[in-house]
Amino acid sequence: MRPELIKEVTYVPYSGNMAAAEAMRQINPDVVAAYPITPQTELMQFFADFVANGLVDTEYIPVESEHSAMSACVGAAAAGSRAMTATAGPGLAYMWEVLGIASGMRLPIVMTVVNRALSAPINIHGDQSDAMGARDQGWIMLFSENAEEQYDNLIQALRIAEDERTRLPVMVGMDGFVISHAIERVRLLPDKAVEEFIGELKPFYPLLDVDNPVTHGPVAMTDSYMEFKRQQREAMMNAYKVIREVGEAFEEAFGKKYEHIETYKTDDADYILIIIGSTAGTAKFVIDKLRKEKGIKVGLIKIRTYRPFPYYDVMDAIEASNCKAIGVFDRAETFGAVGGPLYSDIATAMYLRGKTYPMVSFIYGLGGRDTNVHHIEEAIDKVMQKAAGKEVPLINYLNLNE
C-alpha cells in the first residue's frame, strides 16, 4: 500500500511540472504512458521517481513515441483503467490521430499539455499552437494561469472526464517554461482529501469484463457514423454543466472556486482584455497599474474552459460592464482566418447574443516571445483608440521585430 505523504494543506515552492506530477501522484492512476519531450520532460521524470520509490501503484509505460503513448492510454482506459499522460508541442501533434480515437471511444483519459510552439522553424518554447491545433478533436480543454491552477485543474479533470454525462477525455494546458519551469507558491491538498474528491473510477463496458463482452472501436459505416458524432457533441455540451458542478464541489471541499471564466475588475471596465493562460497574470498587474496611475478602467476575462467554449459566460461578463472595446489575445495563429482562434470564438459569442463591440486581435508570445507590462499597455492603447473610432489594424503582433 502506498504511503500517505501529505496529511494537511501544505504550501510549497513548486514549478508547474512539479505541481502536475504531485497531482498525478495523489490521483494514483492505474496506467501512465508517456514519451519525454521538452518542456514536459521533467514532469514525467518527477512522476517516474514516484513510481520507482513506490509512492504510486501506477503501471508506468515509457513508450517509443507520443502516438504510442496515447494508444497505450486508449487501451488502458478501454480495459477499465484510470489512465493519464502528458505531452507538449510536436508530441501533441504526433498523437493527433489518436486524440480523435480517445474522444470517439468516450474514454476518460486526462492529459497535461505543456503548451509549446510547433515547427518549423524548430522552437522548444511556449505558445498555444499545439492545443489550438487539436481544439476540434473532441477533448474537453482547460487552461491554467499558474502552477497551482494546473494542480487544481488536474484533480478536477478526473471528475469531469469520468462523469457519466460526459465520458470524454480532458487536456489541461499550461504555458511551457513560464509555468512549467518557474517556481512559485503552490497549495497542496492532503492525499486523503484528493482521493475522496476524485472517488473510484466506474468503468463503462470495460474490455476486461469477460462475462459481458463488447466491441470497442468498431468500423462505423455511412448509416451510423454521424450518430456517434452527434452523441459526442451532446456529451461536450453536457460537460459545460459538469465542469461548473465540479468547480462548485471543489470550492465546497477546498475553499477555492473555479468557473468557466475568471473576471477581473470588469464590473466598471470601459475596456476588456480576453486572455488564456499565464499572460492573464501580467494583464492583472497592468490593469491595477493603469487604474491607480491614470484612472483608466480596464478589466480582464480569463478563459479557463476553452472547450466547450463558454459563449454565454463571456457575453454576460461583457454586457455587465461599461465595455466600449475589447482586446482579444491569441498565443496561436490561424493562417488565412481573421484573427486567432480565441478571436473567432469571441466573434461567435457576440453573434449568438446579437451584440457587437469593437474588437482588436492581438497575436503574441509565439515561440516563447516575451510579453511584458509594456506590451500589454501598448495593446490597451490600441483598444482605446478603437473605442474612440480611430483606425486600428485588425490583427496586431505584440513585441514583433520590425
TrEMBL record:
SUPFAM superfamilies: Thiamin diphosphate-binding fold (THDP-binding) (SSF52518), TK C-terminal domain-like (SSF52922). Gene3D superfamilies: 3.40.50.920, 3.40.50.970. Keywords: Oxidoreductase, Pyruvate. InterPro entries: PFOR_II, Pyruvate:ferred/Flavod_OxRd, Pyrv_Fd/Flavodoxin_OxRdtase_N, THDP-binding, Transketo_C/PFOR_II. Residues 269-376 form the Pyruvate:ferredoxin oxidoreductase core domain. One of its GO terms (molecular function) is oxidoreductase activity, acting on the aldehyde or oxo group of donors. Residues 22-246 form the Pyruvate flavodoxin/ferredoxin oxidoreductase pyrimidine binding domain. One of its GO terms (biological process) is response to oxidative stress. This is Pyruvate flavodoxin/ferredoxin oxidoreductase domain protein.
